[in-house]
Amino acid sequence: MKSAILLPIFLALMLSVVSTPSIARATEGTDRLFFVDDGGFEIGACGEGSAWTCATDTECANWIIDPMAIWGVPAHDGQRVAQLGGSCGKDLNSNSFCQEFAVEVNCLSWITFRWLGIVKGSKPGTFHCTVDGEPLETTPEGVVTDTGGLWQTGWFEQTYTTGIHTFCFEFVEGRDESVLLLDTVNHPISPTPVLPLNLSTVKRFY
Asked: CA-CA distance, 25 to 36, in Å (whole number)?
């Protein structure tokens, strides 16, 4: 009897561990993702509806693209992707895509994403993910490799403390043009609550 009472409470806790901050959210039919706003990069361009904060060191403002039109490969899902790296005119591009999210209860959580690498030359750029500015051990990580037009699965696992956090996908261009296309950023499973850790900063869980 007691377990029957506690089960709905536990399920409610699992579903409310992570919530989004006060930013406009796409409908489920548009986004189809449940943890990350605009995880498919379909809502709009950088600064024009996208839930992502885009930063770049080139004059080109928008790096949410139709990859078929530029690179001859389809998006993993939908029509648009985030492009990290590449070039803007003669300038090689280092850029990032970041997003805030709110954690209501200390938890262990996963993020998955799809990526496709395009490498021209022998000195491509590097890719990594960060949470609150701290680099994470991710798959992939480091020097971008060419995936032959095939989408790969990337992921990272992280313990979060209660509060607002920022996670980013970051790319630093090498001496030769290289590109990492990013799509279908998702939170595939329910967050797992953990005991209070008394952490002053987000720390890795391995």
From this structure: 9
